Amino acid sequence: MILTLAQIAQETQSKYIGEKGNLQITAASKLEEGKSGSLGFFANPKYEHLIYETQCSAVFVPLEFEAKQPVNCELLYHTNPYFAFCMVLTNHFNPNIHNQEVENQAYVHPTAVCKASYIGHFSYIDERAKIGANCIIYPGCYIGKDAVIGEHTVIYPNVVIYSKCEIGSNVIIHAGTVIGSDGFGFAPVNGKYVKIPQIGNVIVEDWVEIGSNCSIDRATMGSTVIKMGTKLDNLVQIAHNVEVGEHTVIASQTGIAGSTKVGGYSQFGGQCGIGGHLVIAPHTSAGGQAGITGNITTPHQKLTGTPATDVREFLKSVAGSRKVPDLMREIEGLKKEIHRISEEISSNKA
Amino acid sequence: MILTLAQIAQETQSKYIGEKGNLQITAASKLEEGKSGSLGFFANPKYEHLIYETQCSAVFVPLEFEAKQPVNCELLYHTNPYFAFCMVLTNHFNPNIHNQEVENQAYVHPTAVCKASYIGHFSYIDERAKIGANCIIYPGCYIGKDAVIGEHTVIYPNVVIYSKCEIGSNVIIHAGTVIGSDGFGFAPVNGKYVKIPQIGNVIVEDWVEIGSNCSIDRATMGSTVIKMGTKLDNLVQIAHNVEVGEHTVIASQTGIAGSTKVGGYSQFGGQCGIGGHLVIAPHTSAGGQAGITGNITTPHQKLTGTPATDVREFLKSVAGSRKVPDLMREIEGLKKEIHRISEEISSNKA
Amino acid sequence: MILTLAQIAQETQSKYIGEKGNLQITAASKLEEGKSGSLGFFANPKYEHLIYETQCSAVFVPLEFEAKQPVNCELLYHTNPYFAFCMVLTNHFNPNIHNQEVENQAYVHPTAVCKASYIGHFSYIDERAKIGANCIIYPGCYIGKDAVIGEHTVIYPNVVIYSKCEIGSNVIIHAGTVIGSDGFGFAPVNGKYVKIPQIGNVIVEDWVEIGSNCSIDRATMGSTVIKMGTKLDNLVQIAHNVEVGEHTVIASQTGIAGSTKVGGYSQFGGQCGIGGHLVIAPHTSAGGQAGITGNITTPHQKLTGTPATDVREFLKSVAGSRKVPDLMREIEGLKKEIHRISEEISSNKA
Fold this sequence. Notes:
Three copies of one chain form a homotrimer.
Chain A lengths: L4 H8 L2 E2 L10 E2 L9 E4 L6 H6 L4 E5 L11 E5 L2 H12 L8 E2 L4 E2 L4 E2 L3 E2 L4 E2 L4 E2 L4 E2 L4 E2 L4 E2 L4 E2 L4 E2 L4 E2 L4 E2 L4 E4 L4 E4 L2 E4 L5 E4 L4 E2 L4 E3 L5 E4 L4 E2 L4 E2 L4 E2 L4 E2 L4 E2 L4 E2 L4 E2 L4 E2 L4 E2 L4 E2 L4 E2 L9 E3 L4 E2 H39 L1
Parallel strand pairs in A: 2-3, 3-4, 4-5, 6-9, 7-10, 8-11, 9-12, 10-13, 11-14, 12-15, 13-16, 14-17, 15-18, 16-19, 17-22, 18-23, 19-24, 22-25, 23-26, 24-27, 25-28, 26-29, 27-30, 28-31, 29-32, 30-33, 31-34, 32-35, 33-36, 35-37
Antiparallel strand pairs in A: 1-5, 20-21, 37-38
């Protein structure tokens, strides 16, 4: 398929006033890595010099852009050049285009209902699993018994989805992630631990993206839930019976302990730890390595530190602890001064 | 197989005084999610209202339970309703029942000795590996050369066990976990790092459970050991030559550095870090994100913070650093007071 | 192949003055676990007693070693006994020896160029991937479209390498690691997140070793880079567009956020968090759980804590915050003293 400048201008609703509408675009790149045939974008004024130097054939620029030097590339004007660029990437440079095919070394159990576009070799679809239309299941995945996957979902290689888990539509799950492993539940009996069977499942709603090598445990009973539009980075841990609200972003290596409910529209930096059985208000924001140990009842708070507190409180506290040696010196000074005064009073008396 | 109320009462040694011993139980659920045919349990007095509302057909209740309102379900009396419920789950709702079968796309090397009940497609059992009776190896696993697995052990999909590692009986290993990767050992030579070969192994004793996406490294020489009955959550890191004592629980994303010995009956919250070459006394308990940087010689301590200290000390310390601004104000006040007194003495003299 | 003491002495350039050059060495072990036929080493004077007790047949010892008691093993003198021992391990006890073979249940796309020594069953080499000579690809791996792997590289089971990523020569990647998953990039649009396509790749240079279950994300555009000779432990997170300099060691569970450049010859303890868009000077050293939140401009610093500071500053700060209760008592004492003095002055006046 041939992609022309005119076609790109039309698709992205950008303004092209040049005369090379038939120019072919064959790649997308940063300005500084552009080659003949590649499309770029210019958004940050700090890098304006790059637009005069780039080898890209065409570049998205802001509507208000006015060249201060000659440019050697075609200009596509758009209110949001980066967004327009992303649209082109998504539509034309998507690596996940596959022919309609179940490869012959994939295993699909006879009772499974599989409408996927692609199932790679060495993937295993177990009994009664249901996979919707246009799904792409890369090689080496395991989809457990009675698991359900919606439509247009992409599962990268070596993902494991345990039995009964439900994955929505337009979900992306990166390689090595495990969904539905047993929750960490044991009853202490005479100093040993007896396993509490984990018979619930995991529900991942539509438009969620999950990074690589994450672990999301199934509920003891009921469901662990990742709501609509939420994005998880790599190596994230979600324990049993957790609910993560909609349109929340959770950076890498963060862990959420059992039964905690995280409100929607929240943001967590990397390596945060959130305790068990908590309720976190919507629109909560926590910095990297924050340790949240209690309920967060007021929305829109910005937290950091362990135990997590308001960012400004935390910084004061850090600054404070570093001033203690100064305070100790000041107190020593005061003691001497008081001693001197006492002596003086005594000598006055005498 | 049909499971009746009478059979459940007998198996769990619970007391049933109704007349519906032939009632069929087909599912297990929370009280609030019960349906006709399902079995539940009631343990926490806080949720007593649920027993009057549930759609469950039968419910385990404490021996001393007396209904304050009419109940619509059959009651099974037991000293520990949750424990009785778990027994039924384990015996009758276990998802890991498989026919005696090695699936035809599994690969078992001719020199391997494999008595497993089930080996899924795309699992690879390498040279001279030994797998005991009644083991279940899900699809996509790799069991290395000379590895040994006991009996009744369950290995979920895409687990990797490197050569020479030894896994006990009644062990559960969740998906994506890696056992026996090389310890992180390098010798600095002229500013570069030369790999120190890791020729030891990992020993996982009986009744251990390991979560998903964990990494347990083989010893440089000798063995990394996880002792009897210990439970590891997801994404846990165990470095080379570590020994974790018996009946210890380690929550998600905790890491233990090389050669550390952790005493039995200990508990670690999520995201703890334990330094290398340490000895941790038995019955140690550490809160989430604790960083243990020295030996713990006294058993039964409760630790938190980094560097980890006694929980009460840590809380005082956190509270303390937040009071520093107040202290600074107080010291300013004292200075002024002393200045005032000095002036007064001077004027008295004059 | 028979390995004799004379051969070992020659290969390692160690000095052997005994008469048993034909002695066969069949294993390598710690002194305390030695058996007849095994080779050990003695380096740490603290463990000198072991050399008098060991069952090893031969032991590397320092050039200056003089036995204070009778020894029952042959002695090989070397300036660096451990290094000599490692040489023998690497040359003769390497577990990664494979016949030239692509196993018949591996899948190699017809357009791939594969010169590997070994590709295990259930590994999938996708379109146009290139794998150099003497590579070993264990079972269950996925090598994406247009991915490139150099020579003498070892890829352990169930590793996933996404499309277009480039892995150097003499690289080791442990099981379950994922290279090239999408960077965590989303544009907020009306309270939802729109995926920013990640069209870059990952470049892993020669002599790098990466532990098990790591995640290294592909760049948004351009490349995420792990430079020559760097070593990553298990469960490490490297975000998109990060560059890690040469000969750097990064311990387990550390995470580096997007676009950060880490200078070469650095060292990071376990569970460190390094913020995004930072520049870290070469030869930086950070303790376990350090949280680096700003640029590090001076090389050779030793950092710890969150926000990370110089180790000595951090320890003072921790000590300081623990002294606050004492300071509060001292201030109370000073107040009383001042009050007493004031009273005394008043009574003097009177």
